[in-house]
Amino acid sequence: MKTQGKVLKYGDNVDTDVIIPARYLNTSDKKELASHCMEDIDKEFVHKVQAGDIMVAGYNFGCGSSREHAPIALKESGISLVIARSFARIFYRNSINIGLAILECSEAVDGISEGDSVEADFDSGVIYNKTTGKSFQAQPFPEFIQKLLKAGGLVAAIQSGEIK
Amino acid sequence: MSMTMTQKILAKHAGLEKVEAGQLILVDLDRVLGNDITSPVAIKEFEKIGATEVYDKDKVTMVMDHFAPNKDIKAAVQCKTCRDFCDKYEITHFYDVGQMGIEHALLPEKGLVLPGDVVIGADSHTCTYGALGAFSTGVGSTDMACGMATGKAWFKVPSAIKFVLKGKLNKYVSGKDVILHIIGKIGVDGALYKSMEFTGEGVSSLTIYDRLTISNMAIEAGAKNGIFEVDEQTIAYVKERSDREFTVFNADMDAPYDEIYEIDLSKIKSTVAFPHLPENTKTFDEIGDIPIDQVVIGSCTNGHYKDLAEAAEILKGRKVAKRVRAIVIPATQDIYLKAIENGLVKTFIQAGCIVSTPTCGPCLGGYMGILAAGERAVATTNRNFVGRMGHVDSEVYLASPAVAAASAVMGKIADPAKL
After folding, report:
1. Which tens digit of pLDDT belongs to each residue from A18-60?
2. Which residue of A has its CA nearest to B382?
3. Which run of H or E residues covers position A82?
4. Within chain B, what is the greatest distance between any pair of CA atoms?
5. What's the mean pLDDT in B334-358?
6. Which of A10, A66, A97 would best serve as a mutation to test chain B binding (most B beta carbons within 10 A)?
7. Between vectors from CA B194 to CA B302 and to CA B5, what angle results, nearest 5°?
8. What percent of chain B has pLDDT over 70?
9. Which end of chain A is more exposed for a tag (fewer CB within 10 A), N or C?
10. Residue-level pLDDT at A164
11. Taking CB atoms and an 8 Å cutoff, what residues of chain A touch B152?
12. Taking all residues of chain B, what is their mean pLDDT, rounded to a whole number?
C-alpha cells in the first residue's frame, strides 16, 4: 500500500488532548471529531489539511489519553500517514486497530520539512521526499501486525478468523 | 530464561511457559473496562464484529464517570448507549450515577481486580491496578470491543525498568510526589512501551493508596504498566473486598531489566509539575510566588479517602484564599460517605471549598471547574497538557493533595510544611 501527500509538521509530545480536546468527546461522530482535530495546537489545521496529507512529528506522538477519537479524527481529517520519531503505545495500537498508517523513522523526521511532498510505501517502510529527492527506510512492522493491517484492522481480523 | 513480574503474569495468561520481551502474544483477560466516553465507540465496533454475547457478563465492566452525571445532552446520549448495552447483554458490573465512582478508584474498592489478574481498560489510567500486583493497561475502544467479544487481547511483551524503593516518606510527602519525582527524572517517554516494576523494602512503607497513585501515573512516563510487588498489605486489602482466588507473581531474582533505579523515599520532597508536561517538575526550593485561581482535589490519581484526609488536615481551621475556587471531588460514593461521617466534608465547606459528587469532571476539562484564558490551577490530577482543564491559555500545576490544600489557603503554589 502506498500514499502520497503534502507534509504538515509538528514537534515532540503531541498529546491526544491537543489532537482532539476532551470537550468534544461527548460525541463519537467521526466528522464532528475531525472538525476539531488539532484545534488546541494549530487552529489552521482543519483549513489546510487535504485528503492524503502526511503528518510528521517528533518523539512520543499521541501521548496521554487512550481516546481512539484521536486517530479517528486524524484519519477522518484526511491524514493518510503519521511519521514520527516514536509513538506513545496506546496511540500506536489504536492506529493499527483502526487502520491509520503510522511509521517510526527519526531520519525521515530530520529530512522532511513542512509543506514537502512525500511518498511512502507501508509494506516496505520506504519513505521518499519528492521535494528534496531523499529516501528513508522505516522499520517494517512485525508479521503479526502486518497481518492485522492487511485484514483492515482488529475487528476485520476477528471477522475473518485471523484472531479467535 | 528468567522473567519480570509482568512477563510472568502475561505468560500465564497466554498459556505459555515462558515469554520474552518483544514477543507478540494473545492473552486471556480477567476484566475488560470502559467508561462513558470510550465505551460508545467500543459498542459500535462490538456490533460490527457481529458478536451476539459478551465473553463473560461478570468480567465486562462499564463505569459512567467522565461526563456523568450527564453534563449535557450529548453526554446523556453516550451514557444511555452504555446503559442500554449493559441491559441488553446483562452486564453485572455496570456502575451508573448512584453507584458509580471514578473507575480506577472504584474497581479496587469493589474488589474487582486482584493480584495476578490481566485487565485492559479503554482508559489510559487503567495502569492503576498494578498497585495490587495485577497486569493492567490502557487500550483503545477497538481493543475493548474485541476484548468484550473474545476475552482476549494482543500484546507485545514489554521489557522493564526496576525501581528499588527504600526508606520512608516524610510528613506531607506522598505517592504523588514519588511518581512526579520519577517522571521528572526519566521523562514523559522514559518508560515508553515498558513496564515499571516497583520493589524493595520501601514498598511496605507505602500505603495501598500511595501505590495506586504511583501506578496510576505510570502512563505519564509512557509505560505500558506500573506494577508493585505484592506484600501483606496488598493481601489484606484484596481479601477484605473479594473471596476470589488469586496468584501472586514475583520476578525471578535474575530477571532482565533495561535499567534499575534506587529511590530513597526519605529524600523525596514535595514536587510540582509545571505546565505543560508532567516531566516539568520542580521542588519548593525552585518555586517562586505563583498566584493561582483554582484548586482541584480529586481524580483517579488522588481522590481516595487518604488524599482527602491529608487535604482536610491542612484546611481544618483555615480558609481558602480570596479569589481562589477550591473544588474537592471524592472519587467514589463510599469515600464521599466516609468523608461526611468523619467530618471532612464539614471541614472543606467551612474552609470555603465546594464538595462535588464523584466525577472525572475538570481533570480532562469536561465540566465542574473549567479554566478561562490566563487562569492557573493547582490540581491533584494527572495531566497538565495544553488546554487540559479548559482554555488553551490556562495552566495546570500537578501536585499532591497536601500541596493543593496549602496552595488553596495561600492563594499561590505553597509548601504544606511551611504553612
Report:
1. 999 999 999 999 999 999 999 999 999 999 999 999 999 999 9
2. A64
3. strand A81-84
4. 62
5. 98
6. A66
7. 85
8. 100
9. C
10. 63
11. 163
12. 98
Q: How many CA atoms lie within 13 A of A34 on its CB side?
A: 15
Which residues touch A156 (CB under 8 Å, ≥6 apart)?
A: none
Question: Which of B121, B146, B224 is facing A154, going by the closest CB pair?
Answer: B146
Q: Tell me how far CA of residue B326 lies from CA of A90, A148, B333, in angstroms.
A: 33, 48, 20
C-alpha cell at B301: 490519581
Mean pLDDT of the region B359-373: 97
Write the CA distances from A130 to A40, A106, A113, A124, A127, integer angstroms: 30, 18, 11, 17, 10
CB B387 within 8 A of CB A18: yes
C-alpha cell at B416: 504544606
Chain A residue numbers touching B222 (CB-CB < 8 A): 60, 63, 88-89
Q: Distance (Å) from the C-alpha of residue A87 to the closest C-alpha of chain B?
A: 9
- The H or E element that residue A149 is part of is helix A143-151
Residue-wise pLDDT for B64-106, tens only, equals: 999 999 999 999 999 999 999 999 999 999 999 999 999 999 9
* pLDDT tens digit sequence for A104-147: 999 999 999 999 999 999 888 999 999 999 999 998 888 888 88
> Judging by DSSP bridges, how do beta strands A134-137 and A126-129 pair with one another?
antiparallel
* Beta carbons of A164 and B71 less than 8 Å apart: no
Nearest Cα residue to A38 out of A55, A54, A57, A19: A19
Quote the CA–CA distance of B250 and B211 in Å, as a whole number.
17
The neighbouring-strand residues paired with A77 are: none
Q: The whole model's pTM is what? A: 0.98
Classify residue A67 by its DSSP letter.
-
Residue from the list B143, B146, B192 with its beta carbon closest to the beta carbon of A60: B192
Q: Residue B19, class by beta-carbon neighbours within 10 Å (0-12 exposed, 13-18 middle, 19+ buried)?
A: buried
What pLDDT shows up at residue A52?
Answer: 97
Cell of B210: 500511595
Report yes or no: B106 and B331 within 8 Å, Cβ to Cβ: yes
Residues of B in contact with A72 (CB under 8 A): 41
The answer to whether the CB atoms of B140 and A65 lie below 8 A apart is no
